[in-house]
Amino acid sequence: MSPRPQIEHIRKPQILAAAAEVITERGLAATRISDIAERAGTSASGVLYWFATKDELLAEALTVDEERFNEYVTQRLVSLRSPSAKLLMLFESCVDDYDWSLWIEVWSRALHDDATRAARQRSDDRWRELLASVIRAGQANGEFARTHNPTQVALTFATLIDGLALQVTLRDPLITSGQMLETCIITAERLLEVDLRATAVDAEEKVAERA
Amino acid sequence: MTEVATQPEARGRILEAACELIAEDGIDDVRIARVAMRAGASTALVHHYFSTREELLAQALLHSFELAGDERFGDEPADERTATRALARMIEECLPASGSRERDWVLWVELWVRAVRDPSLRPVATQLYERYRSWLASGVQAGVDSGEFRPCDPDVVADHAMALLDGFGIRAMLGDPSMDVARARTTIARLLAAVLGVDAKELEW
Question: pTM for the full model?
Answer without folding.
Answer: 0.85
